[in-house]
Amino acid sequence: MKKFNFRKVLDGLTASSPGGSAGGGGAGGGSAHPGGTAGAAGTPREEIQETLTSDYFQICKTVRHGFPYLPTALAFDPVQKILAIGTRTGAIRILGRPGVDCYCQHESGAAVLQLQFLINEGALVSACADDTLHLWNLRQKRPAILHSLKFNRERITYCHLPFQSKWLYVGTERGNTHIVNIESFILSGYVIMWNKAIELSTKTHPGPVVHLSDSPRDEGKLLIGYENGTVVFWDLRSKRADLRAYYDEAIHSVAWHHEGKQFMCSHSDGSLTLWNLKSPNRPFQTTIPHGKIQRDGKKPESCKPILKVEYKTCKNSEPFVIFSGGLSYDKACRRPSLTIMHGKAITVLEMDHPIVDFLTLCETPYPNEFQEPYAVVVLLEKDLIVVDLTQSNFPIFENPYPIDIHESPVTCTEYFADCPPDLIPVLYSVGAKHKKQGYSNKEWPISGGAWNLGAQTYPEIIITGHADGSVKFWDASAITLQMLYKLKTSKVFEKQKPGEGKATAEIVEEDPFAVQMMYWCPESRIFCVAGVSAYVVVYRFSKHEVNTEIASLEVRLQYEVEDIITPEPEIIPQFPDASSQLPSLKSLSGSTNTVACEGMMKDSIPCLSVKTRPVRMPPGYQADLVIQLVWVDGEPPQQITSLAVNSAYGLVAFGNCNGLAVVDFMQKTVLLSMGTLELYGSSDPYQRQPRSPRKSKQFAADNFCMRGLSNFYPDLTKRIRTSYQNHVNGHCTSPTSQSCSSGKRLSSADVSKANRRGPGRPPFRKAQSAACMEISLPVTTEGSTRRSVTKSVNYIRKEPVSGIRDRDSSLNAKLSSNELGYISRRAMLQQLHGISSFSHDERHYTAHTWMNKENRENSFSRSRSSSVSSIDRDSKEAITALYFMESFARKNDSAVSPCLWVGTGLGMVLILSLNLPASDDLRQSEPVMVSPSGTVLTLKGAVLTFACLDCTGTLIHPPYEVWRDPHSADDGEKTRKRKLVMHSPSSSQDMGDHQFAVICSEKQAKVFSLPSQTCLYVHNITETSFLLQADVVTLCNSVCLACFCANGHIMTLSLPSLRPLLDINYLPVTDMRIARTFCFSNEGQALYLSSPTEIQRLTYSQEMCDNLQDMLGDLFTPVETPEAQNRGFLKGLFGGSGQAFDREELFGEATAGKASRSLAQHIPGSGGIEGVRGAAGGVIGDLTRARIALDERGQKLGELDERTASMMASAEAFSKHAHEVMLKYKDKKWYQF
């Protein structure tokens, strides 16, 4: 039944003619003139009414998954049971029960030094490295800043907020202690100056404040720890020091005993000192827990500093002393450790990564009660673990958060929204069998907040490919993320023995199994992986374990053309050879160990060895076929740049800069393997010369295709055409309309004459790993280039940590944005690929080594290895996009037939005809024929994506085979027969006699009518930039083209008319990680890797933005604060201060006066009601505000009821006692008393 649309009735009279403008380039493309108009062939036979308008689109971030990148601070609310983590980039992640995960960001981007919860108040204080305090309101789903306080003259070093207090103590680098009112965020006039805290006879400055805490016994006493080893016990009422303690080692942290009579300090020599307030002259106990005891009775030898110590008491057992650091210096290879001392038992827990901070979780929030610790939260540089203290072996809790995304660096991503609903339970069932054992049997202790499923019901799956060859499937439904299944693709290959890789054909120094591209068919469950070592693995899904051999094929792909003369030549001066501007550079694309040294030329050798023995394959994805590209005449195989699979046809196609290969994975045969030029036949629009004989083979090893880091990034390889920027008038010449570089060097004089710079061959560093680079390559003169490159190099020592390489370098690799300028797209790609420095992803030896290797001649002339250079090089045309579909291959076709659409880096589109056996019975025996159809279509820029619409404008899905278990127990004829779905959602009757082919390149989009091949619509998306990602997606039962541009714009275009619907400047591409991992999905969903450890999801759907507030978790839930324990009569009489401590009276303006205005500046925030209004509009916002007000009112009424009841009880007791006294003395005379 055909769909009937009211919009068609209402808007039919005003429908725009297809001959009209298809929309301008928009701000995203920076187009100076309107976008394309319809082709000259006229209008389609039937005007398609499009239902999508700009009202359907809106961009907003939804949720961020993964481990907080570069963590610095940790805080926990023991009543609300939520955890906060601050980072070096100014971000805060707040975690509660699974599903409650909130991301906040300080606008300044300053590192978070410390976090403090207002316990059970729904608020959080953050102290940042720019000496600013912020108060966050957590009573809304999107936290916002209520107040900020910027210190102008002093640097913040430590903060402390006592439980149920509204006065925050702030210690500074000068040694002073200031006091801030949390409610108003105004500085009190009460200041504890360092020179008043220490003794007058002391001649040296005590150093910064490293600790502040009030006494558990008396809130009117403040303990101040200074860095040099001085501890001052300050009486806030009398404004003088009660006692001072001195130690000759620097203090790192201080912890109280709950009775308030003792405190413990940790020091820089690995010692712990225990002090008694009654005898502060010296510590009554000093221990170096990990120090070796000397034989002659001397003091144990010093150890590494103990960075933090916590001293927690138990009612029924010995106290816990927990600390980080303090290990002996003689154990250089010891991993970072957390030590737990409980009585005489000492347990050392070794960590995989350096410890950033830790917190002990206790049963009570009151500091003057037995603490009863039950867990320790340990924040590591790249992990978060929680240790169970209630069991003697201290097991860890199983972490429910998806914080292991970065277990191996992510190299590529795929996102599938609205996928078949049975996939998630099936993947979980096979993945659950690999769960680790030995976790604590108790529930995850961070259980705060509230979360519900919301209105979104369709299943979503995210797939991540990693540098170690692993692939992870994640359940991403309802803005959560949970690991389903992990596949290790490296298991199909033999393990490389140490030192063997260099002697054989291995062409990647590290991570030879890195996943480069993935293709998944959810309906047939066929999964295909392309690896960085030039191989493709086809996987089938089975619920049964099998023991079988792995089939493998080898493919030769060679390109035999040298020169291209484009149809519209335009002479453009080349990008100057770097040898004229930089010091002598080593050829970054290869190794100094040339193949010629090995004494033989490699030929027909794959990069890796497939296992030949039978392999046990557990349930899940099982390798069906491995296809490897081989060395050809001493040249290594070029990286794979495109990949497509079709389960109905039983074919897998992949291409690189040499050509295209098509393999039948059912019959395990190679159907096609030819260079790109041979695909054209007589239809080649370019005039190409035969390839000249190779002068020498001795530099073959320097042509290694995988030596550049770009080889790990499948997205990049599709988008490598260079845009040539004219810096005089801003005009950008299409990469397909100018002559390509011949690799000749230009002198500096030649360069100075021309402002327009053409392509040059960039040098590329060896592919040491699979993570991306973030580099600044400023456009400067010859003299300044050397300085800039040298300055931006990060000299970082390589330190492997516990089996997982530390892949994060300093944040200082970036140069400021005002130093940047891109000569061309090639210059940007050079910059992003790391000519001069490393990004956050990696910590490797630095690039300065290439400055003094090789000669200048070789630095550019032989850098043809990487994907950037190999696609941009003059003689090669890469296959950048592949798509199987039922289509019209030729103009005179009357019916659709199986086709393979091929897109190239020069904007060419070729259609290959697939001749399949007529019946399914013959599929296993009869050969499949693949032949070029002769059809060639052209676009501007490298082709990115294809799609096909039927005559009603509905997306035609490629045919697929319904999944069946290849190793099913019942092998009857019915189960063995393939079930194919050829057209979905439209039936063959609705197909009509024509189709719309949607093709998008990095510069423009075109819609062709088939079979006439008439260009109906064309839209020039961008002139000055280029697209990184484009996909045809479904939204609100319609279809559109979604694009992500390198200048940060996200755009959507209607189909088939290519009208611009959305164009928002969302995210500038600051590094290749974003370009490599950005992907669109259906229903308005998208994601990218925002940091090496985090996935950021976003939506471009207005409906999703409207419903987002309901889907997010609540951070604050009304919880009653536990009552304090009764101290008893004697403890109340002798245990502490008799009078209550009134901070308001002491620190308020009436007593303490006003603080100096120049000391700190108050900045009002956008939180509170305004923040709620911004986070949620309309009725939702009103309800949220009303609920917050009701919560507050309810709490106040509850407190009032309690006070009223207490007063009534007191009054009744007083009345009763008064009556008894009156009765007792009523009849007595005065002299009888």
Describe the structure.
One of its GO terms (biological process) is Golgi to plasma membrane transport. It holds the Pfam family WD40. It is a single chain. The protein is an alpha+beta fold. Among the domains are: 83 residues; 35 residues. Helices cover 13% and strands 33% of the residues. The protein has 20 helices and 65 strands. The chain has a 5-stranded antiparallel beta sheet with strand order 6-7-8-9-65. The chain has a 5-stranded mixed beta sheet with strand order 33-34-35-40-37. A hairpin with a 4-residue loop joins strand 12 and strand 13. Helix 19 runs antiparallel to helix 20. The radius of gyration is 35 Å and the shape is elongated. The chain starts with 5 loop residues before the first helix and ends in an 8-residue tail after the last helix. The relative contact order is 0.13. The N terminus is likely disordered.
Give me some keywords for this one:
33% strand; disordered N terminus; 20 helices; five-stranded antiparallel β-sheet; alpha+beta; 1233 residues
Q: Enumerate the strands of the largest sheet in spatial order, edge to edge or round the barrel.
A: 6-7-8-9-65
Overall geometry: elongated
The major beta sheet can be summarized as: 5 strands, antiparallel
Counting DSSP E segments of at least 2 residues, the number of strands comes to 65
Helix segment count?
20
Unreliable stretches, pLDDT < 50, 5 or more residues? 1-45, 501-505, 562-599, 689-874, 985-990, 1169-1179
Mean pLDDT across all amino acids: 76
Q: Which structural class do you get from the secondary structure elements?
A: alpha+beta
Rounded to an integer in angstroms, the radius of gyration calculated over CA atoms is 35 Å
The fraction of residues in strands falls at 25-35%
Helical content class = 10-25%
Question: What is the rounded distance between the termini?
Answer: 106 Å
GO molecular function: GTPase activator activity; myosin II binding; syntaxin binding
InterPro entries: Lethal2_giant (IPR000664), Lgl_C_dom (IPR013905), LLGL2 (IPR013577), V_SNARE_CC (IPR042855), WD40/YVTN_repeat-like_dom_sf (IPR015943), WD40_repeat_dom_sf (IPR036322), WD40_rpt (IPR001680)
GO cellular component, one term: SNARE complex
Membrane topology: Peripheral membrane protein
